[in-house]
Every structure is written in C-alpha cells, then in structure tokens.
Amino acid sequence: MEQMKVNSPKLFVCTAIENKDEIEERYEKAYINFQSLVADCSEKEAHDALNNAVCKNHEDISLGMLMSILTEPQNSTKCYRDLTLITRDGFTCVLNNLSNLILERYLKFHDTTRNQLLWLVKEMIRNSVSGVDSVCWNLMRYASGGDITPKNIFLVESLLDIYIDNKSWLDKYPVLICMVVYTYLRLIEDHNVPHLMTLRQKEVNFVISLIREHFDEILSLGRDLVRLLQNVARIPEFNQLWQDILLNPKTLSSTFTNVLQLLQTRTSRRYLQSRLTPDMERKLVFLTSQVRFGHHKKYQEWFQRQYLATPESQSLRSDMIRFIVGVIHPTNELLCSDIIPRWAVIGWLLTTCTSNVAASNAKLALFYDWLFYDPEKDNIMNIEPAILVMHHSMRSHPAVTATLLDFLCRIIPNFYPSFSDKVRQGIFNSLQQIIEKRVLPNLQPLFDSPKLDRELRTTVRDTFKEFCSNGEGVSGLREEGIEDLPRGGPDEPAFSDDEDETTPIIAEDTDDDDLPLSEVRARERPELAAALPTALRPFAETLLDERTAAAATALLNACTPPMPTPIALADLFAAVLQDLPPLKISANPTPSELDLNLSSPIFSMFELLFANSNDSKRKLILETFKEIHAQNSVPSVGFSLLFYLKICYEKDRRVERDPAKKRNVKFKMDIYKTYCSNLELKIVECLVNDFEKCQECDSNILVWLISDVYREFKDQVQNHIKLLHIIVSTIDAGQLQRLVCLTLQGNLMMFKTDDFTTMLTTSLNWETFEQYCLWQLLTAHEISVEDVLPIIPKLSYREHAEALTSVLLMLKQEKPSQEVVRQMFCRTVDDEDTFVVSTVMYWCQDYEEKVADLLAVLLSTRYPGTSPNKRKRPGKHTIPPNAPPSAELVLGHLEQIRICCVEQDDMSIFKTECLQKALQHSQSNSNDNLKRQYMDLFSLAWEDELPMLRRARKMASNSMPLNQNLHSSNEDSEEEEIVKPKQAKRRKKAISDSD
Q1: What are 713-772's pLDDT values in tens digits?
Q2: What's the CA gap between 549 and 562, in Å, rounded?
Q3: How far apart are CA 368 and CA 360, in angstroms?
Q4: HSE of 301 in the Cβ direction (CA atoms, 13 Å)?
Q5: Are 573 and 601 in contact (CB under 8 A)?
Q6: Is 389 within 8 Å of 347 (Cβ atoms)?
Q7: What angle, 0 to 180 degrees and rounded to 10, lies between the N-to-C axes of helices 356-367 and 398-414?
C-alpha cells in the first residue's frame, strides 16, 4: 500500500517547498482506495468490488475514479465506462467536485490533467450527462482575455472545437450560449495577430452563427454585448451583422426593435464576472475588501506583475473595470472604512495603462453605464466610481480628471449620433442621481476647477451648464472669484482627436497614493466650508480643527438667516464625525464617563432638539439628519440620539430627591419619534437599524439602552424577531445575566404572547449561544408551557437541540396534562430521539397513575378503526397542524417507553388497568402489520396481575377507573380532564438557574 501511495499520479504541479493541501490529499487517498479495490482483479471482480464499495462510500469511490481519469490517459476510457456503470446519482457528485476542482486548482493542473479534463468534458457531452454545462461555464472562465500564451490558446481552441462538434447539444442551453458568445466576442479582439488568424476566423464564423440563430436569447446579454461588438466591428462578418442590427433589426428577431433595446438593458453581473479568471477575481475582491488605503501599493505592484505585465494584457483592464463597477458593490460599512475604495483601484488601472486604444476602451468601460442610465432600473453603484475617480484625482492627478471629463463630453455626440439625445439624457440622469444620493456634495468644484485647461473648462460648462449654475442650483454654491484664479501653464494637458496623452509630472507632495484615507478626506475641507454662508465659514474651520461639541454648538448658535442648506451642514458634520473614535462605555458607566462621551459634535445637534429651540433651527437640524441618513455617511446618528436621551433621562432622575417625583421623570421618546418621522421610517425600522449600528459600535451601549427601549416602545419591539436576534447575537454571558436580573426586578419586559410561535420558530435557525440566550430570557419572563407547545412537534433532535433541551427542562417543572402529552406524541418517532421518553419517565416518578391514564385516553380515542363503520381518516400529508397524533405515532412512542422500562426493569406503568385496557382495545383494532410491528408492546396487555407501582403503592383495581370516553370515537374526548386521578405527591418546584 505504501508503495502504491508513493507511485500514485499527481493532479497538480507542486514546487519542492509546497506541502500537499487537503484537496490533493483527499483525491490521493480516494485514488489509493479505488486502486486497492481493482488491483489484480478480473473485470467482473472489479465491477463487483466497486458496486459493493460504492454502496458504502459513493463519493470517495467516485473521486478515486475521477482522479484516475484525469491522470491516467491509458486507463481513462475503461475507467469512465466503469464510472458510468456504478454511479448512483447521474454523475452529480463527480460534476460538483469537478467544478470545485476547476475553480480552486485549475492553474496548478499538470498538462496531462488539463488534456484529460477536456477529454472527460467531451465524453460527458457526447453521453448527454446532465449538468456538464456548469463545468463548461467554470472552465471557460480560464479562457482569459489579454493572454495569447500557448496554454491559454490551447484551452480556447479546445473548447471552441467541443462546441462546434456538439452544436446540437449546445443549442439546448440558452445561458451557456450567451456565455459562449460573450466569451469569444471578447477573445476575438485579442487574436488579431498573424499566427492566430485561422483560429480567429473559426471563432468569428461560430459566434456569428450563434448570434443569428439564437438572437432572442442573445438579447439578454444587454448593453455590454454592444460594447464587445463595437471592438470587432471592422471584421467583415461583424460589419454585416451591425448593418442588420441598425437597419434591418427584424431580420434577426421579430421581437428586436433597434439597438436601443440592448443599450437600455443592464448586463448581468455573471457575464461581467466571467471575463476574469477565479484567481484574478479573488485578488481584486481581496484588494477592495481587506487592504487599507495607504498600504495598497505593494499589492497593486504584485497584481501588475502577475496579470498586467505583457502588451497583450492591456486589453484586460476594461474587463477589470467592468467587474469592479458592476460586480463589486461594497457595503455601507466598507464604504465608511479605510479600506481602499473602488475609485482608487480604477484610478490605478487607468494611470498605469500604456496603450492608447486600451485606455480609450477602459474609459468607455468606466462610463458605459452612464450612457443610458435609468434610475428606475440601473444601480447608483455602477456610476459612483467614475465620478469619484474624477473628484479625487483633481487634486493629485488632475490630468486623469481632465482626460475623463474630456471623454465624457466627447462621447455624447460621438457614441451613436442618432441617439445623442438619449446618451445626453443618460449622462444627465447619472449626474442628477449622483447629487441626489450625495455621492458628491456638488459638482461645481469639479466642472469649473482652475486646474483644468481653459478650453476644456469651456467645453464642460457648455455641455453640463445645468450643473454649473450660479447661486442655488442643483450643484450647490459657485465659488467666489473663481475667474480671477490663475490658469494652468503650458504643461496643462491638451487633448486631440486621436486621444494622444502624456503622463504629467506630479509633484511628490501632492500625491495621495501613500496617504491614509482620512488625510485624503481632510484635504476636502475648503469645499466643505465654501458651501456654507460666509459668516459661518470661520466656525466651520474651527469645527474641522477641534471636532468638539463646543465648536459645533458655536457654529449652530451662529446659524442665522441666511441659513445654511441641510446638504452643506450634513456634509460638514459627516466630515467632522467620520474619523472620531466610536462611542464606548463600561458595563456600569459612571456619570463622569457618560459626560465624557457627550464631547462629540453630534450631541450639540441633539441639544437643539432637546431644548425646543426656535422652529427654523429645529427644522434645519432635522433636515440635516435626513441628509446624513440619505448619504449614510454617519451610521451612528440614530443610536447616538437614543444614547443622549438615556443620559438626559438618568440626569433628571438623579436630580430628583423625592422618590415619587423620580418615578414621574419621563424619557423624551417624542424626540426620537420626531426623528423617525422626519426620515419617513417606521419607529421599529429605525430602532432595528440603530441597534444594528450600535451592535457594531459597542455592546455595552446596546445593553444599557435595552430596558428603556422596551419600556418606551413596547408595542413596537416586544417579540420583534430581528431586534431580538440583534440583541442575543451581541451580548455575552455577563450581559445576559444583567438582562435576566432586570427582568426579575420588573424593569424589562421583552415578550408578549401574541405571535409567540412565529418568533420561536424563526429562532430555531440561530446560533447555539443565541438560542441559549433567548431561552434564558424566556425562562426569566416565566413564559408558560402553553406558549411553547405548538413548536414541540416541529423540533428536530438533531437540528434544534438547544430549543429541545430548553423545552425539556421547562416540562420538567410542569405536571402532565392532556394537551402537553398530545403535542409530545405528535413528534416523529426516531430511535435516537429520547425527548418523549425522557419526559414521560421523569413524570412517572411522581405522577405515574395520571400519566398512564393520559396515555390510555390518547391511544384509545385516536386509534383508527375504533368504529368499523367510521370513514377512513385522511392520510398523514393532509392532517391539519393541530390534529392529534395518529395511532401509529402513539404506538411508536409507547414502544420506546416500553424499551426504556425493560432496561430499567420496571414495567409498572404498562400494568395499570387503564393502559392495559387501552392496549387490548388497540390490538383488537390493529391490522396484521401493526400487530407484527408492535408485537412486544401488545404482549404486555395479556398480563393477569397488576404489580406494585413505581413508588411502591398498591393499585386498587377500582381506584382509577378508565375514563368513560375511552371507547368513544368522539374526536373531542382527548380534551376532557381525567376523572379524579389519585393525587400525586407534590414535588417542590425546581429553582431556575437562569441567573
């Protein structure tokens, strides 16, 4: 065996210093196992051995055979045939593992492995294996653009030959057809070199045939199809296709009206993603989600060496920009962090481009979603990077901003002259959306910057005059005296029709690339102050310098007509608050600690709301908060307001000496309600959002606010699932104990009985500690067993162990009742599930007689066939949720109880008179199958003597008569109380250890 392991073939190319990873070890182990089964066996013996082994471990045998196919060409045909014979899932396991192997390890494959992979794909296609199209999709992602190395060309041509040879198979997969067209349209652009002309012609012929035959499906590719077709428009076949698209659209499809139909359809992210290899995608995602701004240069240099070092790779920049723009959409938290933003990565891709053609295509890729932007259908995240590249490059790389603005102006009349008005409207929609969504505070500094060439500034002003207005236009206030500022010298970038550009020499101290993001933002201060009235600008400068509540109060007190706009004030406070440390308190904050937290400028704005100042200033503050919320630049405003109101509430209570007056101190919840109303959000939506942000900031603040929030907004928040989940996913054991103590003191009420079942059912998917916290809180609130009964049948002992354990401990404190037993016996019978057995056996210690009577009633009244003339009950799939358990379920649980009693050598419960009669009655009405299945259980019914009870009490035969409804077929009999059961010995109720 050891020798076999040493000589096992290799899937991957590994260097001497690389250790085997878990994937390689898994495949090697599976291969060795497979070889051990078939070594030195005849064909029949090998088949028998494989069939026996695959029943026990289907996946490992399949993987071993897959590795043999991929590494041993001489055995691949026979091994594939054997795999076809033994597969139990139609190759699902093989296809899933093959796709994962391609996505994770394709670049490390041996040449033999790559050849065999293509052979295997061809064989599966030839045999119409279901699901092989997904393998083709993943494999095509490695047919990379910007790469004409032999290995890549081999893959490109091999896949093309597979599709040509199996066109009838390809015709069945519309999504794969779109992928093939999109991929090869992009690759044709790179294959315009002499030694690849034969391949290119083959690609052209095949892609043209697919487009013309499947144009209805191809329409779903949207606007990026047009972009790729433009790049190959000079090829005669595509030139003719363009003529038909523009002049004879109906010849392509009866549903196709004109090219505008394509341009107004956004391309799916899956196609934008498909033009980067999985390895490139992982690196770009890492760069834009993990690397801090100012620490990114080494990563970018590595990326450039790896993927952008050759002249052919220049065309790859457009693919990367389309991917960043259309696929990477950061969360709000990421946008507010110091992680390198998308605009910085795109700016790097633009500034390092060395080809004029590639640079033009990269600009088009950046602005492409602008051209036909529709706010109703398109995404603001697709247009945001372009405006931010121009905005941030103006200071350190003005030539980049200049060339992008020039491109934007030129593209309106030149993209497609017949649709110039549509392109203009799309770009104007984009700029309008940028202002409305507060991506930039205003466009005036960008469009009228003194760093731009005079001719370009004139062109920009003429093109976008609506956004360059004087006074209070949509773009904000115009800078005073801007015409008197000095113009650029002879080194200013100039633009020509052929897009010739020279890289400007940038002074080292103006380069932002190595600065932290906070410093880059700090350089925007003049723009922030300029948007305010002149009288307020000194106060704004002081606030930006000091960032204190006192400076903010001085600014707000100085706000007199003409008042600043909410937009300008929001931008100023957002810049001030962005880099301040988050609010933090200890578990038991002191008054001085709380006062220290009030030094943040945001609390000066709350003071104006709290003090009921004049209406105009109050309205200004509320509108400013609305703007801050809209641009989501300061996510902490809501919970900071709750924090401030709580501090004021505690201060007022400390001031009052009289206990009666102290109880009458009110929490100013009306201020928070006004804040929510002004945002046009429901209170509970605001609370959930604010608690989410508070969760990320400081868990101690969240716990400190809980009791007040649940008191003041109890109608909205009690039983609210999402809010509850935020709490239990945040707190630790000490904070949980604090909440339990508040509950026991009567200061916290988190639950109500309405819609209780929905809340509990939803919580079953939470993490273990989250569910533990929930059930501890439920126990502290003394939730009754009746509230949790409906979920008992739904709880899986494997998946819902936390909830099941909590319910079990809750039942431990209760006396047995008909409704509880009914719900318990509705659970599915499973030998490993001991919930019912454990509960019943525990109850039998003190309430054996009552438990026996309850089980007897349940078995007798719900047994099918009680009446020979009774109509057959509906099948198990039509039983309503609250229906009683079937006889099969009751018998199944009783059988489990019987086995437990046998193990404990105490069968007393089955020898009670009521259960004896119920078993006899059940046996007489059971079919032969049930009698055989529960033979041991029914055999207990024929015992003649009634032994001692579990607690050594004699059971008199007339002391516990069977309920009169025992033999009745009345469906409601289970709800009746047992007639005068013997009083069980009262046990002392266990004390909860919740706290």
Answers
A1: 988 999 899 999 999 999 899 999 999 999 999 999 998 877 778 888 888 888 889 889
A2: 23
A3: 12
A4: 5
A5: yes
A6: yes
A7: 70
Q: What span, in angstroms and rounded, lies between the C-alpha atoms of 892 and 604?
A: 68
Residue 583: phi, psi to the nearest 5? -65, 140
Q: Cα 994 to the chain's mean position, in Å?
A: 34
Query: Residue 318's beta-bridge partner residues?
Result: none
Cα 864 to the chain's mean position, in Å?
Answer: 48
Which pLDDT value is given to residue 187?
95
The DSSP string of 711-758 is HHTHHHHTT-HHHHHHHHTT--HHHHHHHHHHHHTTS-----STTHHH
Contact (CB, 8 A) for 33 and 61: yes
Q: Concatenated DSSP letters for 573-602?
A: HHHHHHTSPPP---SS--HHHHHHHTTSTH
| Closest listed residue to residue 175, CA positions, set 268, 103, 89 | 268
Q: In whole angstroms, give the CA distance from residue 910 to residue 894.
A: 9
Closest residue by Cα to residue 779 from 817, 814, 807: 807
Return the closest-CA partner of residue 113 out of 27, 187, 12: 12
With tokens 């899937």, the residue in question is: 11
**What is the per-residue pLDDT for 182?**
96
Count the helix, strand and coil residues of the chain and give each as a percent rounded to the nearest 5: 65, 0, 35
Q: What is the spatial distance between Cα 289 and Cα 888, in angstroms, rounded to a whole number?
A: 56
Q: With CA atoms as reference, report the closest residue to 789 among 766, 818, 767.
A: 818
Encode 692-730: b = buried (16+ Cβ within 10 Å), e = exposed.
bbbbebbbbbbbbbbbbbbebbeebbbbbbebbbbbbeb
* Burial of 18: CB neighbours in 10 Å, binned 0-12, 13-18, 19+: exposed
Q: What residues are paired with 476 via a beta bridge? A: 473
- CA end-to-end distance (rounded Å), the chain: 58
Residue 686 is predicted with a pLDDT of 92
Give the C-alpha separation, 958 to 976, whole Å: 20
Question: Quick one: which of 864, 721, 886, 861 has its CA closest to 793?
Answer: 886
Q: What crossing angle do the helices spanning 835-861 and 887-904 adopt, rounded to 10°?
A: 130
* Residue type present at position 704: W
Longest dimension (CA), the chain: 116
CA distance 555 to 538: 9
- Residues whose CB falls within 8 Å of the CB of residue 58, separated by 6 or more in sequence, listed in order: 88, 89, 93
- What are the residue ranges in the chain where pLDDT is below 70? 1-8, 14-19, 469-527, 579, 611-614, 633, 862-883, 942-995
Residue 415 identity: F
Alpha helices (H) along 87-194: 92-105, 111-126, 132-140, 150-165, 167-170, 174-190
What is the spatial distance between Cα 838 and Cα 28, in angstroms, rounded to a whole number? 46
Helix or strand or coil: residue 806?
A: helix
For residues 618 and 608, the answer to whether their CB atoms sit within 8 Å is: yes
C-alpha of 222 from chain center: 26
